[in-house]
Amino acid sequence: MGITQAAEFLTTWETGLAQAPAGRALLLHGAARPDLGGDPQALLALPVGEREADLFALRRALFGERMQVRLECAACGADMEFELDAGEFARTLADRGEPSVRVAEDGWEVEFRVPGIADLTAAARTAEPRRALLERCLVTAVRDGRSVSADALPAAVQRRIAEAAQAADPGGDVTLNVACPECGQATRAELDIASYLWTELDAWARDLLLDVHLLATAYGWSEPEILALSPLRRRYYLELCADV
């Protein structure tokens, strides 16, 4: 495991225990982007795909390239296990387009800002998320030289906007399409990297605290002293304890 700032990530884990999934995702994103100084507003303003790329990069830095994934076949119910490359996802999702897109369709000229995390979160709380997102992120809409509101946009133009926004931020929706080795049918499933990474961090933190308990009991060392040890040296001392 490549974690060197054990105490810092233990604090992140401890803080996240009382958080909902959205709060945990924000904590992990803050750990991935120290350049933003832990500013929640700056993090929430970023496009979803940028957050996903950051979290895949963090996952690679903490736990390595290979990600073990289990999925149930939607057709026959068989368990499927396979590996993904966190580094490849981080590199692929880092390729993003412009922060806003322009659509010209049948006399309509529209500029639309690529939604950020805060936009999607706010829209999800409304009765009509699609409409709310359109209203939040619409920059300008012109028809035959006259400015119009989001409500005036026809369905065809709205579809073009959605397609353009997705193309500009493809990482906003990381969907797997896996062929079952048993029946051959494909299963589609969203890959929630924030949830995946939190599960790994939770397991790591609990294992590390057990190590601290065992070494403190055996040697009388404090938690900071134990966390200051490299993972290799910590493991060696644990093996010595087991041999006694």
Which characteristics define this entry?
244 residues; Phage baseplate protein; 8 strands; Baseplate_phage_T4-like; alpha+beta; 11 helices
Write the layout of secondary structure elements.
Layout: H1 6-16, H2 21-32, H3 40-44, H4 48-63, E1 66-72, E2 79-85, H5 86-93, E3 100-105, E4 108-113, H6 117-124, H7 129-137, E5 138-143, E6 146-147, H8 155-168, E7 175-179, E8 186-190, H9 193-219, H10 223-227, H11 231-243
Antiparallel strand pairs: 1-2, 3-4, 4-5, 5-6, 7-8
Structure notes:
There is one protein chain. With 244 residues, the protein is α+β, with helices and mostly antiparallel strands. It is built from eleven helices and eight strands. The chain has helices spanning 6-16, 21-32, 40-44, 48-63, 86-93, 117-124, 129-137, 155-168, 193-219, 223-227, 231-243; strands at residues 66-72, 79-85, 100-105, 108-113, 138-143, 146-147, 175-179, 186-190. The strands form three sheets. Strands 3-4-5-6 form a four-stranded antiparallel beta sheet. A two-stranded antiparallel ribbon has the order 1-2. A two-stranded antiparallel sheet has the order 7-8. α2 packs across α9, α4 (48-63) runs parallel beside α9 and α9 crosses α11. It is elongated, with a radius of gyration of 23 Å. The two termini are 26 Å apart. The model has no long low-confidence stretch (mean pLDDT 89).
